[in-house]
Amino acid sequence: MPDRPGKPRHDPVCVDQTMMKWMMAIMAKPGDGRPARASTRQRKAMTMTQAFQNAATRTIQVKDTRMVYRELGERGGVPVVFLHHLTAVLDDWDPKVLDGIAGSHHVVIFDNRGVGGSGGQTPVSVADMAEDAIAFIEALGFAQVDLFGFSLGGFVAQVIAQTRPELVRKIVLAGTGPAGGVGISDVGTILQGAFQKAGAEHKHPKHFLFFSPSPQSQKAADAFLQRLGERQADRDTAVSDQTVQAQLTAIAKWGQAPNSSETLKQVRHPVLIANGDAPGCEPWRHLPVRRRLRRSGAPLSRRIATPGEGSSGGADAQIEGSRTSQGVLAITDYVLVHGAWHGSWCWARVRNLLAARAHGVFTPTLTGVGERSHLLRRDVGLDTHVADVANLVIWENLRDVVLVGHSYGGIVARHVADRLPDRTRSLIYLDAAPWRRSANSVQHIVRFGEVEVIVLINVFTVDPANQQA
Fold first, then answer.
1. How far apart are CA 294 and CA 355, in angstroms?
2. Does domain 40-329 have CATH number 3.30.457.10?
3. Closest to 431 measured CA to CA, from 451, 463, 464, 404
4. Fewer Cβ atoms within 10 Å of its own Cβ: the N or the C terminal residue of the chain?
5. In terms of Cα–Cα distance, which of 332, 317, 305, 339 is closest to 409?
6. pLDDT cut 70: percent of the chain above it
7. Is 451 within 8 Å of 39 (Cβ atoms)?
8. How far apart are CA 305 and CA 307, in angstroms?
9. pLDDT tens for each residue of 64-102
């Protein structure tokens, strides 16, 4: 396509890289993995940022059971729901992990049925635990969540992702394994051995359950246990014997279940797996988990081993998973809408650059142009194109979307944001807005209803001689 008169020629690769950098810089502060600012609607619901130390313990009725939970961070966006390990209650989460993620996400921790301060009887299967967790999430009114599953909580997260995939956006699995994983059914024996060793050496069982014997790891265990005791007020109730026995039964069933290789192939969410590198911590090694993101070809499942000799995959994996998950949870879904006489092909390089960073990227071609030019009819117009993009967002079940509209595509994107405000995080106008031009590449950030609007004008070049063109 020939260049527009009065505009200098540019290297298309540099142009595409610049576009991608602008969008990434606007949607997240450089280097910190923080998501974009919440919308006006979300900010109305926000509270003061709560740290683990002062987060209030709340209760909610879930079907016939009263469950306890705490919220950290600012409300808004997709919350991260934590699913804890065997024998754990609210106060067994590492404050370092929770506060780290709550710095940029809305975090929710809770006691499942029968655990700690929650009522009812703890079920004896992971499937029933997952059903209770889903009921809790829905009782809080969340349409979609990210899951952080630690040990037993990782089993529950896998079941939720398989039974209610539309409820889940991203998953972090720390110190856990798949159904039928090697060594999982031996947890009862391991737990008993840890308690015996702790009594003989006058230490806490978590020194041996969650940490390796190395001096470095044992020093980390001391610091971990100290953090667990920092909160003094409003502490949770300890688990009952019924809960421990029920959880052990559920874990044994999970470990004895048929290998879940085939069923896990259906999990299509971005997943971070954080496990230890000690023997017995590699139940994922021979599991053919999906390795590619649907549509984009970007990495979906990523495994990290926690640092340190003989890392156990317990709290070490939880901490390492929380560090790496900052980037995973900040993954964004972009919908790029082309201008007139273009098609999805014009976003090819930008799409590849964003996908390489594991973002979800969607580049629909509007009806009647490009490879869909054969669908052109007299009645095709703006309403048709708005429906093209809105239907993509709905049928792909996208939420918290960043809409990018170039030229005429900005008009389409604006109407999509107006039609789907609850699914739109931000709207980026790229040489598309009807506002007054200025010498600044980013002219301003405004509000369109409840959606943040970012206006990019003359991003790639500011030609003083043609600035008013």
1. 11
2. no
3. 404
4. N
5. 339
6. 69
7. yes
8. 6
9. 999 999 999 988 888 999 999 999 999 999 998 899 888
